[in-house]
C-alpha cells in the first residue's frame, strides 16, 4: 500500500518536479495493466508470436501496444497448459493464469476494452495436442470468460473486447457445426482458394512465409513477390478475411515492406523493435 501526502495549492501551477511526483504516485496506485494500457498507443497489426516465451507473457505485449498474442497449449488434466513442447509444461503456466484472468481484469479496469472501444484484440490459441479433445477442454476453460469474448449465434456475429482464434490442430468441422460458439478458426491458403467457409468462421488465413516467398527481408523485395503478396491480401480482403504469415524475416526492411503492402498482421518475437518501426510508419 502506498501512502503519500502532498499539500498542493489548487490555484498554484505545478512545478515539473511536483508533476512528476503526481504521475509516479498515480502509476503506483493504479493497477499495472490499466495504467499501461491507458498510456500506450495500440498497434492493431502487431502480432506477438509465441508470446508466452517472453519474460512477462501478455504484459510485455501490452506494454508494446500489440493487439494480437499467440499461446501454444496442451490439454492436461482438464486445463490448457501453455508451452511450445511437452518438456516445458508447467502447471502454473496455464491459459487461464497467463491470459484469460489478466485480460478479464484489465477489461474491467479499462471500462470494457483492452485498449479502447474501437481497437480489437486477438488471442490466438495454437492447439498442440489432439484437436477435438483439446477443443472440448477449451470450451470449458473459456466458459467463465464469455462476457469478454466475441461470439456467433443465431443472430450473427457479436464483437467483444477479445476474439479467440484457434490455430494448430484445428477441429474445423466440430467448430463449424456449432450454432453458438466463442471461438474462430485460423485458416490456410487452401481455405481462401476454395472460399467455401465463411469469414464468420475463418476470419484469418495464415501460412509459412518460407513456403511461398524467397525474400529474406534484406535489400529490396522482388517485384514479382510484392505483387504475389498483394494478390493474396486483396483476395483475402474481398472475402472479408485478414492475412498473417509465420516464419517471417525479423528485419526492419521486412516490417516496412509488408506493412506498406497491406499485410494485416506482422508476426514477430521482437516486440519493442517492431513497435518502434510501426510507430514511424504512416497508414498505407
Overview of the molecule:
This protein has 284 residues and is of the alpha/beta class. The chain has one domain (42-279): Phosphatidylinositol (PI) phosphodiesterase (TIM Barrel), CATH 3.20.20.190. The chain has ten helices and eleven strands. Helix 9 (252-261) packs across helix 10. The longest helix has 16 residues, at 223-238. It is globular, with a radius of gyration of 21 Å. The chain starts with 15 loop residues before the first helix and ends in a 5-residue tail after the last helix.
Short description:
The protein has 284 residues and is α/β, with parallel strands linked by helices. It has ten helices and eleven strands. It has a single domain, classed as TIM Barrel (Alpha-Beta Barrel).
Q: What amount of the residues lies in strands? A: 15-25%
Query: How many DSSP E strands?
Result: 11
Radius of gyration: 21 Å
How far apart are the first and last residues' alpha carbons, in Å?
A: 46 Å
CATH hierarchy: architecture: Alpha-Beta Barrel
Instruction: Give the overall shape, derived from the CA principal axes.
Output: globular
| Element-level helix/strand string | HHEHEEHEHEEEHEHEHEHEH
| Structure annotation, total helices | 10
Helices and strands in order, then pairings?
Blueprint: H1 16-29, H2 32-39, E1 43-48, H3 59-63, E2 66-76, E3 79-82, H4 95-109, E4 121-127, H5 131-142, E5 151-153, E6 156-158, E7 162-168, H6 172-176, E8 184-187, H7 189-194, E9 204-208, H8 223-238, E10 242-246, H9 252-261, E11 266-268, H10 271-279
Parallel strand pairs: 1-2, 1-11, 2-4, 4-7, 7-8, 8-9, 9-10
Antiparallel strand pairs: 2-3, 5-6
Helix pairs in contact: 9-10
